[in-house]
Amino acid sequence: MAPRLSLCMIVKNEEQRLGKCLDSVRPLGAELIVVDTGSTDRTREVARKYGAEIAEFDFPTTDFASARNYGLDRARGRWILVLDADETLDAKSVASFQRLTAGEVNAGYYFQRRNYHASGDAPTTDYPVRLYPNRAAYRYRGRVHETIDGAILAAGGRLVRSEIQIDHDFASDPAARRQRNLWYIEILKEEIAADPNDTGRLDFLAAEYHQLGRFEDAAQVAEQIVGLRPLDAQAHLHAGVYRLLSGTNRQRARTDFETALKLRPGDQEAHSFLEFLNQMESATETARR
Question: How far apart are CA 271 and CA 259, in angstroms?
């Protein structure tokens, strides 16, 4: 009998964190598929201790989507759960999880991911798709920042926000994180060169520049996205934020915030940024007098 759920992971040198991740999903009784991309520590030994099937994946060229899909091809569960080794399932989410996977809904589910940073700052939150039916058409794309959202929608599925929460230990070494940002930027540029209209890849490129504090570069990419998605309020909002952070063109930022507000009336973020710009300009005028 096929299992109800398969946990699919890709890992490399995660012996310190993998056990905590797998402990968090024990109550789910999932089949464990661990794709190892070249570990030189005890990662595979830890995975075996938990009863995981280990699939070794040759990684001559960076392509995380291919590694993800390699694991999906081996999964027998009716549902797929995806976690990284530095993530854990919140214990309070187990009941919600079991309720969702008991059904037959053709949907991918967003999880609330709380990202904890090395700086000790308050965690940030994002919403990745981490649970979906095991279907042949549902496969990842993107060599880095790989996503499955588009495949689910293209195959007739829906995307739904769930109550499930996961915790992400984002406390990586700043120097190592910077090197990864630069590495991802080069790969994203290669993908965009192959398809300049792929706005999803452009979104990730702007985010990488943002993380590096290269706000002018992020703003230029964001304006390119706006050109491709002129009716996307969020795209205009991001463009305005990057322009504001770069300090190079406040009027351009204002235009983007105003456009976001027209496209999405009542948007509190766009309204707050416009108020902030008004206060800055008022202060400048007062100082000139």
Answer: 11
